[in-house]
Amino acid sequence: MAAIGVFCASSQRLEGRWLDLAHDLGVEIGRRGHELVSGGGCVGMMGAVADGAREGGARTLGVIPQSLVDLEVADVKADELVVTDGMAARKTLLIDRADAFITLPGGLGTLDELFEVWTTATLSLHRKPILLLDSDGFYSGLLEWLRGATKQEFIRPEAMAMILVSKDVQESLDLVEEALIRT
Ligand SMILES: C/C(=C\CNc1ncnc2c1ncn2[C@@H]1O[C@H](COP(=O)(O)O)[C@@H](O)[C@H]1O)CO
């Protein structure tokens, strides 16, 4: 059993397929006996992954800043909701409390969390697996840019190799579980 941190969109205007993807990942996290660690929101894909995880039988931990609790977007159904003073403390705690990370499609907040967890890994501050769930090629443009930046030596190949990439939920969790065994 592992604590799987999931980063994903908070937008409430998304097509149903993205909410379904988040929900399916949550269900599978629960079905495999893992815990969900998330940004503690109840909106968009964040709400879908947390609801799915509970449906699958997972314990859910949300880490959310007070400012977002005040906006009434907290996942109050979470088994544990940790409220932080700000966004920076929230990210630190999210990284501390999870054993591995999966990034679903998302916007600026999602990318901020992905890059924080990735840069801290490249600085050897942790050795936790990081996976990008590239459903429907959502991240193909970003991946192309990252590979180009690696070719031009802006990014070290070892750093690039830290990111696992998968297109579907089952394979994502298989890869994360294998990586957890290796670390
Ligand atoms: C008030 C509204 C939405 C609330 N916004 C957020 N709620 C919870 N968590 C959030 C929110 N915005 C960013 N986050 C964190 O970043 C990720 C999602 O960001 P994105 O820009 O939507 O990709 C997520 O993992 C959170 O930890 C109005 O709708």
Model description:
The protein has one domain (3-137, 163-177): Rossmann fold (3-Layer(aba) Sandwich), CATH 3.40.50.450. The protein has a 7-stranded parallel β-sheet with strand order 4-3-2-1-5-6-7, sandwiched between helices. The protein is 49% helix and 17% strand. The chain has helices spanning 16-31, 44-55, 66-70, 87-97, 108-122, 140-151, 157-160, 169-182; strands spanning 3-7, 35-38, 60-65, 80-84, 100-103, 130-133, 163-166. With 183 residues, it is of the alpha/beta class. α1 (16-31) packs parallel to α2 (44-55). Bound molecules: ligand LYK5OOP5. The ligand C/C(=C\CNc1ncnc2c1ncn2[C@@H]1O[C@H](COP(=O)(O)O)[C@@H](O)[C@H]1O)CO binds at residues 7-12, 39, 41, 43, 46, 68, 71, 73, 106-110, 113.
Can you identify the CATH class? Answer: Alpha Beta
- What distance separates the N and C termini? 14 Å
The CATH architecture can be named as 3-Layer(aba) Sandwich
Helix content: 40-55%
